Amino acid sequence: MDSTNLVNVGMSFPMSYRISVDKAIGITTTVPIEIVYAAGYVPIDLNNIFICNDEPDVLVDYAEIKGLPRNTCAWIKGIYSATKRTGIKRIIGVVQGDCSNNQALIEVLQSEGVEAIPFSYPHDRNKDALYKQLDFLSNTLGTNLDKAHEMKFVLDNVRKTVHEIDRLTWEENKVTGEENHIWNVSTSDLMGDYELFEAKALEFLEEARKRPVLDPEVRLGYIGVPPICCNLYSFLGELNVHVVFNEVQRQFSMPYKTDTLADQYICYTYPFDMLYHIDDIKKQIEKRRINGIIHYVQNFCHRQIYDRLIRKYIDIPILTLDCDRPGQLSGSMRTRIEAFVEMLKNIKC
Predict the structure, then answer these.
(1) pTM of this prediction?
(2) What span, in angstroms and rounded, lies between the C-alpha atoms of 237 and 88?
(3) Domains plus CATH for the chain?
(4) Where are the beta strands (DSSP E) in the chain?
(5) 195 pLDDT more than 60
(6) Whether pLDDT at 294 is above 90
(7) What beta strand segments (E) does 82-205 contain?
(8) Measured in whole angstroms, how far is the alpha carbon of residue 176 from the centre of its chain?
(9) 131-136 contacts: CB < 8 A, separation 24 or more?
């Protein structure tokens, strides 16, 4: 492999990418990475490249200088800049089941010489339609679904370690909410090296099992897309709050036992309707004994509208937070979080 670096994502993730650009395929969100690995390529989640950059706000500025509108989601701008700065020449863009701006982003990147492979999650969760998408992606990358299914069972074993990290978070209180977030969100691409990722995860798991038990005053659930603000989890920890559920990040780890690739990605809630999300969230609220929910929404994202449905169908206290650009929590957001946590503590009393 040639020694070309994509980017060093820093120490906030379990490991750093070091992959030849020729083998890398950027992804705009979680896609069937089993197919990518089976084809001999390496999936790289462009969201992780963006947010773990030493200066993610500079990447947002770069995209705006290149003409992306200011009133566009910062994640879209970050994905654009991550693609350009790393030199990735091929991406898989999810055009149905993710951000409504992805189609336009893909067209912009194509105009600048990046090959874009479209992938769609069928809105109605039709398994036959999804199977056709899986087959199309396999053929496009020069492999087949038999090889992808073999890779599924290899990656299932890797993901089991992250599922155990998740269990230690909510059942044994030995893993922090931020650590839970990091390990789960990293499963979107397994950091481009599933064997090394598994070794690092097992090493972490062994260390975590030896820890003393946390004794939080509040058990919180986090739902919505992963946060763009960098200190949310550490601030909650200062308030003696334990985040025992990271909804979307957990979905990246493929938490359900399935026999086929089509079943696996039909069970995956993120690309599908919000009521499907809510059904899973309600089950986890009861299972994980959650006292309250933070619903994070990204500015200029169509998913902000879902807050209405979440408040309609979930009957525990909810705090909705919205952010625009990467950086620290603002003073007003810190105040709102403190007030919400204080309310939950009083309810418990």
Answers:
(1) 0.93
(2) 37
(3) 21-146 (3.40.50.11890)
(4) 24-27, 42-45, 90-96, 115-120, 218-224, 241-246, 292-298, 318-323
(5) yes
(6) yes
(7) 90-96, 115-120
(8) 17
(9) 131/262, 134/32, 134/35, 134/261, 134/262, 134/265
